[in-house]
Specification:
about 80 residues, about 55% helix, about 0% strand, globular
Length: about 80
């Protein structure tokens, strides 16, 4: 993991599925845990999902907060309301 990975979690949208369009950092824990059980996708997406699951599982999601911009927060709120 490097600092660029943390920024990718904040800016990469989930490309498909129930949470399509959500930033990887904003995916719910139960969804990340489901991927951990059934297997993460191959490639960069799977690597980032596994990283986010590890961060979430260990209660470290707050580490991403200093990297968020006001736009990130607005995106997360909009996703929850839709």
């Amino acid at each position: 993991m490097n600092e660029d990975d943390l920024l990718r979690l904040l800016h990469t949208p989930m490309p498909y599925g129930k949470y399509r369009g959500y930033k990887l950092a904003d995916l719910p824990g139960h969804y990340l845990n489901w991927y951990a059980r059934v297997g993460f996708p191959k490639g960069e997406l799977g690597r980032l999902l596994a990283l986010m699951q590890e961060i979430d599982h260990n209660g470290l999601a707050w580490l991403l907060d200093p990297l968020r911009t006001p736009t990130d927060a607005g995106d997360a709120i909009a996703q929850c309301l839709s």
